[in-house]
């Protein structure tokens, strides 16, 4: 062994092993490096398992990946902050000094009074607009990201998308501006916490609150959909509850895309947290407003149960559950939920979009009528509402089975799973920061076909060590033989993420990102997403 | 010039005693700021710890006019006039002090709020951004604090990375700069620290035979 004190030795071994591509290599390395120190080897293996499970654990604190900064190489300048993408990472240095006492500084014509939220993606400030004499919120992009054209475009797209909607339940955008090249959004200042925080603090909501908040979210969605916008990231963290009245304000349209905006949207791009994602979104298919309804259903489930319907320890496992599993019956989790509500929720989270409610407006109606009913008559009797027949009927048979396949579609298990390989930035809580993904690689199973789409031209994709040359826009297809493969994404010479997958031919799914992995499986590796198998029963995947 | 700025300048100038004075001062300022915000008593208010640290930075060290910005790092040889309190070195000291202060404030609040809860035990929900106004599940924070202390005793660099991230909310790139390590090293320390803490907090991955000593 080395002379390093045990802790450093352990860390080094752990990290070195983590970087090794394949399981055998890792096992061999461990054997050598630990040199017979069995407790050490066991310890490192345990750390691997923790590493696996920790993926989502600390994420909310914003562990963004560094955008591939080269490791102090050629430059020869130690600690030169100006190297950090143009602006540098100086916190909030874009503010100019102000004379006003108590002010933190000025941003253009605004007096900055308070830092409401700070995260890797950007900052939200409470600001006083002197011309209109009111408080507004300003969301400033992180300077380190402002130089990234892709990120800027996304940021500005959010502004346009949200600004088009005027509704009580959607956060108002007043304008977009720029100071010294740094874009920022001027929005309504809402005092209050997010639905996520409310759930964390108080657990499941009462029935009337669930109906009320659910109905308001649906109203906000209806307004967005009327503008042809799909939010795409409806989840409790993006629902603000305005104080006092606890009025819903939907926020963070950073991922919203216009339904007909095909040119700027690559179908197959998946962004957002998987727990509230719709199956079609998770699979990278084209998404319409009904995807938001699925997410709404998940949110309603969370309001009733205190936790979302599809949970697992890793991103990939969650996506798999979203696509295939039926969540635990609400009546089991919370017996106080009347069957007409759990029926409504079940319908919202039907896997095929066609089987859900088709418009947010009708869902809003239903929830409002149910609320009125409950307030007047209690929960014993199901509400006699318009559309009652929709609630009374059990959801169609397929939907109930846990390995359901949609009619007319042969979906191999875990066939299409989206991997986020590059630059995933965690999404901060309260303040509705935008998450951004630079590159997405999608695997559509069936016969082992791999479909890849890349948004960021600076990212290279390597398959089994060979570079995949991506020419032109649109998806590229290539076939992979059964067996093990390694996918790596690289930017500016720095690896961003490594992913392993195994293509099998027998149609059986063997593993999918479970952290309780199998000691012999040695498939825990690399970055948060773990090894997975794509079954290949021969049926082609559905085209987009 | 605020007291903090004065002390930062002294640190920059090499005053050996100045560094000790920084922590109590920053701590006092952060508490004052937190108390002032909490006093507004907005229902359902959140007070994000990292936002507080950054606001404190602005209040205590101040913002620099863009046009006046000097090149970021002056080597010791190049030190011209008054030491620049916004240089990386000062910034490092400030944020390290702020992170430590915030940690203490959060722990105090958690201990206060910890009523007759039984057992404690790590709740299996993801750690959310620390909220001063109503720290949820204070046991989680106290357990994390204990785990962090343990990590610091066996691997200080890794613990330092965690503190700056958790309590000052700094992105890894900044952490790297402040600790004078490469971004890649910071990333590696972070990956290791997460696995270490998770293992410590959950006992996950531990074999059923608990009698076997864990090599730390």
Strand content of chain A: 15-25%
Rg over alpha carbons of chain A: 24 Å
Major sheet summary line of chain B? none
Domains of chain A, number: 4
The CATH architecture of the largest domain in chain A can be given as Orthogonal Bundle
Question: Helices and strands of chain A: which structural class?
Answer: alpha+beta
Overall structural class of chain B, as computed from helix and strand content, comes to mainly alpha
Number of strands of chain B: 0
The largest β sheet of chain A comes out as: 6 strands, antiparallel
- Subunit arrangement of the protein: heterodimer
| Radius of gyration of chain B, taken over Cα atoms and rounded to an integer in Å | 19 Å
CATH fold call of the largest domain in chain A? Transferase(Phosphotransferase), domain 1
Kindly report the name of the CATH homologous superfamily of the largest domain in chain A: Transferase(Phosphotransferase) domain 1
Portion in helices of chain B: 55-70%
Q: DSSP helix count of chain B?
A: 8
The total count of strands of chain A amounts to: 20
Mean pLDDT of chain A: 67
Largest interface: A-B, 83 and 77 residues
Question: In a few lines, what is going on in this structure?
Answer:
The complex is a heterodimer of chains A (544) and B (216). Chain A contains 15 helices and 20 strands. Chain A is an alpha+beta fold and 544 residues long.
Description:
The complex is a heterodimer of chains A (544) and B (216). By secondary structure, chain A is an alpha+beta fold. In chain A, the strands form 5 sheets. In chain A, strands 1-2-3-4-6-5 form a 6-stranded antiparallel sheet. Chain A starts with 5 loop residues before the first helix and ends in a 10-residue tail after the last strand. Chain B has one domain. Chain B is globular. The interface between A and B is large, with 83 and 77 residues.
Search tags:
heterodimer; A: 544 residues; alpha+beta; Phosphorylase Kinase, domain 1; Transferase(Phosphotransferase), domain 1; 4 domains; 6-stranded antiparallel beta sheet; 5-stranded mixed beta sheet; 15 helices; 20% strand; disordered N terminus; disordered C terminus; B: 216 residues; mainly alpha; 8 helices; 0% strand; globular
């Amino acid at each position: 062994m080395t002379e390093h004190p045990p802790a450093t030795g352990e860390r080094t071994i752990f990290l070195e092993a983590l970087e090794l591509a394949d399981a055998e290599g890792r096992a061999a390395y461990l054997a050598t490096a630990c040199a017979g120190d069995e407790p050490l080897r066991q310890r490192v293996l345990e750390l691997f398992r923790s590493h696996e499970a920790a993926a989502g654990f600390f994420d909310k604190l914003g562990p963004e990946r560094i955008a591939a900064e080269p490791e102090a190489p050629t430059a020869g300048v130690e600690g030169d902050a100006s190297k950090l993408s143009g602006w540098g990472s100086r916190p909030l240095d874009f503010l100019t000094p102000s004379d006003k006492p108590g002010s933190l500084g000025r941003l253009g014509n605004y007096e900055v009074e308070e830092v409401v939220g700070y995260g890797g993606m950007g900052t939200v400030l409470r600001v006083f607009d002197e011309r209109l004499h009111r408080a507004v919120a300003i969301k400033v992009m992180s300077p380190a990201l402002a130089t990234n054209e892709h990120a800027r475009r996304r940021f500005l797209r959010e502004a346009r998308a949200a600004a088009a909607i005027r509704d009580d339940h959607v956060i108002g955008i007043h304008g977009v501006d720029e100071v010294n090249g740094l874009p920022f959004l001027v929005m309504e200042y809402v005092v209050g916490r997010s639905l996520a925080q409310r759930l964390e603090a108080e657990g499941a909501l009462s029935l009337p609150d669930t109906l009320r908040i659910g109905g308001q979210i649906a109203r906000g969605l209806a307004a967005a959909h009327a503008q042809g916008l799909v939010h795409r990231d409806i989840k409790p963290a993006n629902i603000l509850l305005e104080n006092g009245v606890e009025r819903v304000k939907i926020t963070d349209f950073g991922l919203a895309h216009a339904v007909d905006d095909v040119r700027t949207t690559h179908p197959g791009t998946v962004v957002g947290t998987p727990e509230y994602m719709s199956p079609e979104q998770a699979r990278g298919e084209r998404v319409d407003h009904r995807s938001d309804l699925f997410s709404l259903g998940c949110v309603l489930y969370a309001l009733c149960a205190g936790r979302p319907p599809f949970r697992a320890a890793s991103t990939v496992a969650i996506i798999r559950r979203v696509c295939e599993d039926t969540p635990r019956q609400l009546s089991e989790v919370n017996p106080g939920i009347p069957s007409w509500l759990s029926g409504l929720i079940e319908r919202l989270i039907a896997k095929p979009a066609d089987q859900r409610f088709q418009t947010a407006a009708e869902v809003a109606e239903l929830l409002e009528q149910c609320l009125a009913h409950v307030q007047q008559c209690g929960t014993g009797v199901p509400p006699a509402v318009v559309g009652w027949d929709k609630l009374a009927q059990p959801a169609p048979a397929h939907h109930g089975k846990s390995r359901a396949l949609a009619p007319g579609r042969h979906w191999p298990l875990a066939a299409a799973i989206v991997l986020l390989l590059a630059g995933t930035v965690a999404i901060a809580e309260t303040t509705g920061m935008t998450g951004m993904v630079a590159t997405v690689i999608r695997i559509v199973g069936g016969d082992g076909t791999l479909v890849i789409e890349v948004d960021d031209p600076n990212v290279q994709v390597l398959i089994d060590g060979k570079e995949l040359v991506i020419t032109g826009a649109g998806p590229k297809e290539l076939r992979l033989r059964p067996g093990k493969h390694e996918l790596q994404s690289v930017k500016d010479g720095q690896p961003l993420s490594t992913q392993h997958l195994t293509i099998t031919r027998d149609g059986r799914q063997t593993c999918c990102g479970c952290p309780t992995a199998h000691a012999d499986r040695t498939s825990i590796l690399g970055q948060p997403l773990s090894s997975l198998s794509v079954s290949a029963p021969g049926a082609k995947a559905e085209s987009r | 010039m605020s007291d903090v700025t004065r002390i930062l300048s002294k640190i920059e100038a090499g005053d050996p005693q100045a560094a000790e004075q920084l922590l109590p001062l920053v701590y006092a300022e952060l508490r004052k700021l937190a108390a002032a915000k909490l006093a507004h008593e907005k229902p359902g208010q959140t007070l994000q710890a990292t936002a507080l640290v950054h606001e404190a930075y602005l209040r205590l060290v101040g913002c620099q006019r863009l046009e006046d910005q000097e090149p970021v790092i002056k080597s010791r040889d190049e030190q011209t006039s008054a030491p620049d309190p916004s240089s990386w070195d000062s910034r490092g000291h400030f944020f390290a002090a702020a992170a430590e202060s915030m940690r203490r404030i959060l722990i105090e609040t958690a201990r206060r709020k910890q009523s007759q809860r039984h057992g404690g035990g790590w709740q299996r929900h993801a750690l959310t951004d620390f909220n001063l106004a109503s720290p949820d599940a204070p046991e989680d924070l106290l357990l994390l604090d204990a785990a962090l202390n343990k990590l610091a005793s066996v691997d200080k660099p890794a613990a330092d990375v965690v503190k700056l991230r958790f309590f000052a909310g700094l992105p890894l790139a900044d952490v790297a700069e402040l600790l004078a390590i490469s971004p890649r090293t910071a990333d590696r320390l972070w990956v290791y620290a997460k696995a270490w803490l998770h293992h410590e907090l959950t006992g996950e991955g531990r074999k059923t035979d608990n009698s076997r000593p864990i090599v730390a």
